[in-house]
Amino acid sequence: MAQVLVIGDDLTGSNATGALYARLGLRAVTVGALAQAERYADRVDVLVINTASRHWPAARAYAAVRAAARTAGPAPLIVKRVDTTLRGNPGSELDALLDELTAREPSATIRTLAVPAFPDAGRTTVGGLHLVDGVPLTRTAVARDPFDPVRHARVTAVLGAQSRRTLGELALDVVERGPDAVVSALRESRAEVTVCDATENAHLHTVAVAAARLAEADRIRWVALDSGPFGAALAAELGLRPTGGPPARILAVVGSTTDRTRTQLARTETALGARWADLDPADPDADRTVAALRAAAQEGATVLGVRVAPAPVAADGPVPVPDPGTAARLLRCLAEVTRRAVAELSPGGLYASGGDVAAAVTSALGADGFAIETEVLPLAVAGHLVGGPHDGLPFATKGGLIGGPDAARDCLEHLRAACIRYAPGTPPRTGGHTTAPPP
Questions:
Q1: CB-count burial class (<10 Å; 0-12, 13-18, 19+) for 316
Q2: What does the pLDDT average to over 410-427?
Q3: CA dihedral 48, 52, 58, 64 (to 10 degrees)
Q4: Nearest 5 degrees, angle CA 150-CA 81-CA 422?
Q5: Are the C-beta atoms of residues 306 and 275 closer than 8 Å to each other?
Q6: What is the SS3 string spanning 196-233?
Q7: How large is the greatest C-alpha to C-alpha distance in the chain, in angstroms?
Q8: Angle at alpha carbon of residue 184, lines to 183 and 187, rounded to 5°
């Protein structure tokens, strides 16, 4: 059975949304005909149904979405994908989904989180108003769309023009206070649909964490109305996993201690739940570091790594510059940690940041080299190891000073998707490596 059912209203948005779930390591497929939905519902982790209903009359769109939900059957998470600018029939299609779900599960407590923000695409929600690059919808080109002009910037007004559900709003200042504040606000709310402010990916994560807590504690059945990233964040927080078994681990090895790198790694913690073992530059200890990685794996982390802790800086002193001897010791320790961690923890993919680190890791694993398959982003490439005992192991590398805040996250998500494509039972690329599930 599919773990996630997504119903979208156009093909481009449906495919883009499916890609977000694939980055989580979930197998996603987009279909159009209901017969195809029946065929694939039990064969994928994420079933995306495109009703192509964005420009249809509201009643016809309602019927199409309800039929799609009925045909696909139940899923732990159901998502109504909406346009990033709220064009089309978001309220009518949400009602169709909720009506079908309520009929199927009459005793369930069903509520909707409407989070249309897509920060990476410049779509944000502040004070209940939906913005494109900081401009309210009614002052953008979508207000003059020839098919579906958007007449309101307030999300509740857009939905309320079509939906019978009661509507509420969750303000940005509540979201910024963290998951506990969001849990309290959602518990106090009587709204069937809550529109949540969000201006950055961390806000999506906060709301998803709160929703997952309420799903477990209060047995709430959440439906997500979103443009893509919130539903994926909620799926991750609900613990939805590939039906083929536990997700493969990704091991990351990072030698850079720059501010840019620290920001990137912080993003992996909030977006992916990454766990990092810090290597002390004054006393690099492979035994201690491997033990920390082992403990993180035993606690269920699927993205884990080792990084060099920044050297302490005196308040009135210069930033310390590591001497060549210290740098060489750190590099040897990182390589040794990688060799032992790969042997013990059987990661499905490996990420290295920094050219020296990538070279040391490749050598420590006995590989002949690195087969390049794609560029994840400029100066960040992905492929697999060739030769040696780990031939075929998915591998990605990036310069320590390369990329924006989400660069490391993007590389790790690429590796996670690669692990699914080459999971146990599928042929390795060039040699004998297959992805081993966590013990």
A1: exposed
A2: 68
A3: -60
A4: 145
A5: no
A6: ECECCHHHHHHHHHHHHHHHHHCCEEEEEEECCHHHHH
A7: 72
A8: 85
User: Across 270-367, where does the E strand assignment appear?
Assistant: 275-279, 303-308, 349-353
- At a CB cut-off of 8 Å and minimum separation 6, what does 423 contact? 242, 244, 245, 248, 348, 434, 435
Beta strands across the sheet bearing 303-308? 275-279, 303-308, 250-254, 349-353, 394-398, 380-386, 369-377
- Checking if the pLDDT of 82 tops 70, the result is yes
Asked if 291 contacts 275 with a C-beta cutoff of 8 angstroms, the reply is no
Q: Which fold has domain 250-421?
A: Molybdenum Cofactor Biosythetic Enzyme; Chain A (3.40.980)
**Residue-wise pLDDT tens digits, 249-288:** 899 999 888 889 999 999 888 778 899 999 988 889 999 9
Q: Are the beta carbons of 273 and 324 closer than 8 angstroms? A: no
Please list, in sequence order, all residues whose beta carbon lies within 8 angstroms of the beta carbon of residue 369, skipping any fewer than 6 positions away.
Answer: 362, 385, 386, 387
Mind listing the pLDDT tens digit for each residue in 87-108?
999 999 999 999 999 999 999 9
Task: Give the start-to-end residue ranges of the domains of the chain.
Answer: 4-237, 250-421
Q: Domain 4-237 is of which CATH architecture?
A: 3-Layer(aba) Sandwich (3.40)
